[in-house]
Specification:
190 residues; Trna Endonuclease, Chain: A, domain 1
Length: 190
Amino acid sequence: MNYPNGLKKTHQASITTHKNRGMTLENELNLSNDFYREIDKAYIYKKPTPIQITKVDYPSRDKAVIKEGFFTTPSTTDYNGLYKGYYIDFEAKETKSTTAFALTNIHPHQIKHLKDIDRHKGIAFLIVRFTTLNETYLLTANKFIYFIEKEERKSIPIEFFRNEAFLIKDSYQPRIDYLKIVDELIGGIK
């Protein structure tokens, strides 16, 4: 297809790599959070990864290229912000597994962070999408912490999500309306 500016649309196969495998959920959450801000409902943002840039090449003024950098501190969770006066903090993950969510997807410093937010009465949770099943869940930090402290397993079975987490149904605007569930949490349900 030719566009008015002369560019041609090319069809490229979607390539899933380790780097971009979680982008679908992340993109949908970013769009949902944009929508929440546009309607003045909540102010929740994706946290930037803390990186210190140490080497940049400047072939020209407008073409700077980062050549070297390092992580300054371990990142905590993916998103944080405010909703109805409550602090919200959560991690978003995707898995292709149809049976369980591997705990290796969550780092120890992230678990500690979720525990700390929960202990200080913030609203902390995981949003986990089972891509093959097309099921997305909100698992509260206290249920997540309960599981990892009581179980010897290296993964959380899908049945735990189905019994203990909240299923997030796809919607149009926003695509992932997780604040409906946060409203239930604020009201004290589950």
